[in-house]
Amino acid sequence: MATQPLGIRLEALSAVFRHERRGDVTAVDKLDLDIRPGELLTLLGASGCGKTTTLRMIAGFQPPSSGRIRFGEQDVTDLPANRRDIGFVFQNYALFPHLSVFENVAYGLRVKGIGHDEIVRRVGEGLEQVGLSGFGERMITELSGGQQQRVALARAIAIRPRVLLFDEPLSNLDAKLRVQMRGEIARLQRELAITTVYVTHDQEEAMAISHRIAIMSEGRIAQIGTAEDLYQRPVSAFVAGFLGGANLVDCTVREVGAGSAVLDVDGLRWSLETPATLSRGQRVRAVVRPEALELARDGDGLACQIESMVYLGARAEYLIRSGERCFQVVVSNPVSNRLFQSGEAVVLRLPGRNVALLAQH
Amino acid sequence: MLALWALMLLFIIYPLGALLLRTVFEDGSFSAAPLLAAVQNPNNLRALRNSLVLALMVGFAGTLVGLVFAFTVERAGLGRRAAKLIDLATFLPLISPPFTTSIAFVFSFGPRGLITYDLLGIGNAKVYGFTSTFAAETFTYFPIAYLALRPMIASIGTSLEEAAFSLGGSRWHIFRTVTLPLILPGLANAFLLLFGCSLADFATPLILSGSDFPVLPTEAYLQITGLFDLKSGAILSLLLLAPAGVVYYAQERLVAGRSYVTVTGKAAASGKLDSVSHAARFGLIALCLFVTVAILYFYALLFCASIVMAFGANHTLTLAHYHVIFTEGLPAIRQTLIIALIGMPLGGLYGIVVGYLVGRTRFTGRRAMELISMLNYALPGTIVGIAYLLAFNDKPFALTGTALIIVACYVFRYSPTGIRTTIALLQQIDRSMEEASTSLGANRFTTFRRVMLPLILPAFFAGLGVVFIRSMTAISATIFLVSIDWTLITVKILENMTEVALGPAAAFSVFVIVVVLAVSGLLNGALRYLTAPNLRVSKIGT
To answer: Which residues of A touch B542 (CB under 8 A)?
Structure first.
């Protein structure tokens, strides 16, 4: 690809819908976002968080109520969708049922008035890239869901767009195919280096394919960063709970050292390495991932009781209780450790590092 | 868009306005007196009462027969051949000229009728009156109920009945408590459709009801053509307006309240005979076959009558009647075909344009456009015909006697099928289809031409078909609009009937049926060809 990838910039972007009964509903609320050239950025969030509306505004299907959208230096806010030079992959594929696979992929090229030989070449190339060489003559209805999604992908990249947009493209596929397709989308995106915005509600999918993830909530971005950033260093209880399981442990700072601290959990001393700046007596909320906790028969730690255990082969998931506090604990390779049954008394060992601390109000 | 509004104003609103004004204005001043007088006239009241009674009876009977047919075809496990036969018997009445059943009734049950005279030996059977009008209309219109109910029963899915069966209900109990309540909205809709058809039917009562059983459409016609009393005719036709309006409103409400049948989704693989017992199955099939055979017998009779000298008296084979229609009748045939062939593309185009505007775009007056576009279709033909007669008789739009007025009448009266089909199709086409095209760089026009148009092509062809079929077979409105220069086959049939030239009437009818079947076949073929996968280019690609 000869052209340099573009960055996308959203400036105070808002979308307000007029609702008959509920009055004005703000779907996207003064959103600022910088998407780097060539990166795959995922908008991740529950339904109704504004991620799809944001994507549709970038595509030009939905005019923003206020704010600007820039592709590189160009302000595209008032540019209609057909002149933005985008490739859009729809949740329902939106393939043209009256056209063959070949004609679907060729559609955008024909619209651009590209010559016949070039069209044949580029459609062939596109179909090859998605592993559908030889399927050109088929009708759309003769394809499986996964194949249809590949055609949709080929159709979007055939026009060599400046920006590639995905709207929950895998949600209609079964679990196994989903894993396979997301791998191919990630590979193709890295190969073509087209700036890509990807919308999904599936956190695993987001973590698997993205350079960066923006977690959205109520029309705003709750946190943006790499998958590791978000998982290891969530800035809020919402982000911590949204991405993976999280135990939120309220405690008090007892001692402060250089790069470390001692916290008090129900009278138990918890020594912790942490870069956070803390003061004595401060109330904090620790985000402890379930797989960071350890269970033991005895020794130092918090005395607990097993409430329930779910054995899943590769791991076991426990729910344990200590007084008012409940913890989720995930133990991998559980058989070689030891399975605890519900009702058993255990000791919970808190991790000495990799714990995010949130200030408590 | 502006041109479209202008056309609708001219050919829908203006004639109706002219009709209303004519009935309430006396010498330039407002007066409800003629209208009140008409309402109090016992003769008119009798015609109104007769019309309503007839429509009610036909509505009930036709819905019942339609339900039996729909249920039998969907649930009784018919053989392929029997199903084909039923398809034919329910299709023929829909595409026949209006007098077909009436002619067959006269041949069968008249004074020299095949059944009454030859079979039962009754000398002077009385065929004219309520009973035969009712029976003929039921035979003519029940396929409409059948077509409305069949997809509904199919969509309920046997799994629902199986579920009820597994809970221990008897088959009859299940039909009463599960199937029937689910199709109740459909039954109501079918009843209203038939009620409207019967109320507006002009041809059948004209031939069969005789003087004992006058109904409104025929009375209005006789006032105008017999007594040249345009105003009384107009007022009589207006009496039809109230019940027709009620029916239209009720139907709109029904459609708006969308039944819950579609929710149950796709029908499971059927073919099991679980939903009816053996005895019931036997009864249903027997009933269907009886009606089917009766219809096919009517058409066979019609064909026979067209190739013998004088049916009932002289059964020598002859082509004389066909000779007559292709010599004396040739102008009518030519003119009808010209009108139908002009109206067909115009109606098809009008249908998808209005359908697309109403179904897919947003503009002020969208809802008004939808309602107005349905008006001429919802109103009985007699009203529309008289309205056109009044509106286009004088300047500024003196169109009486031209082909244009007949074409316009057909286009605006029969395109709503195309409009409705287009809207229904558009509802199934997700908006992302257009967005996909846009995202690939296509502008609005290209998107419409390359994506939307091919997808709504079936609606276009449905529109073409209906406008053509109706142009060949309708009479109730256009009988007021024909002239010496431009006449129609259906009017010729009526003339033949009144002159007791039944042979040519039968020959004309057979001719119309053959032409309509041929054109329907051609349209279907063309549609199939056009929507077939376009493989020419893609072959090069792989």
So the answer is: 102, 124, 127, 133-137
pLDDT at A28 over 90: yes
ipTM: 0.81
CB distance from B541 to chain A under 8 Å? yes
Q: What average pLDDT does the structure give for chain B? A: 81
Cα–Cα distance, A147 to A137 (Å, whole number): 13
B432 touches chain A (CB under 8 A): yes
Interface residue of B426, B437, B439 to substitute, partner A, most A CBs within 10 Å: B439
Structural contact between residues B19 and B234, judged by C-beta atoms closer than 8 angstroms: yes
Cα torsion B530, B532, B533, B534: sign: negative
Q: Give the number of beta-carbon pairs within 8 Å between A and B.
A: 100
Closest Cα in chain B, distance from residue A128 (Å): 11
B17-38 residue pLDDT tens: 888 887 777 666 677 777 777 7
For chain A, list the domains and their CATH numbers.
Answer: 8-241 (3.40.50.300), 245-359 (2.40.50.140)
Burial class (CB in 10 A: 0-12, 13-18, 19+), B208: buried
Cβ contact A107–B442 (<8 Å): yes
Say what the pLDDT of residue B421 is. Answer: 86
Q: How far apart are CA A41 and CA B182, in angstroms?
A: 49
Tokens in use for A56? 């549709």
Give me the domains of chain B, ranges plus CATH numbers.
Answer: 1-28+318-532 (1.10.3720.10), 41-311 (1.10.3720.10)
* Residue given tokens 């915005």 in the structure block: A197
Cα-to-chain-centroid distance, residue B340:
16
Q: For A100, which of B443, B454, B538 is closest by C-beta distance?
A: B538
Q: Is B240 helix (H, G, I), strand (E, B) or coil?
A: helix
The verdict on a CB contact (< 8 Å) between B436 and A94 is yes
CB atoms under 10 Å from CB of B431, counted, come to: 11
In the three-class reduction of DSSP (H, G, I as helix; E, B as strand; rest coil), residue A49 is classed as coil
**Chain B contact probe: residue of A111, A118, A140, A153 with most B CBs at under 10 A:** A111
**Residue to test with chain B: of A58, A62, A96, most B Cβ within 10 A:** A96
DSSP secondary structure letters along A205-270 = HHHHH-SEEEEEETTEEEEEE-HHHHHHS-SSHHHHHHSS--EEEEEEEEEE-SSEEEEEETTEEE
Bridge partners of residue A43, in order along the sequence: A199, A214
- Res B535 pLDDT > 60: no
What pLDDT, in 10s, does the model give residues A183-211? 999 999 999 999 999 999 999 999 999 99
Task: Provide, as residue numbers in chain A, all residues whose Cβ is less than 8 Å from the Cβ of B540.
Answer: 120
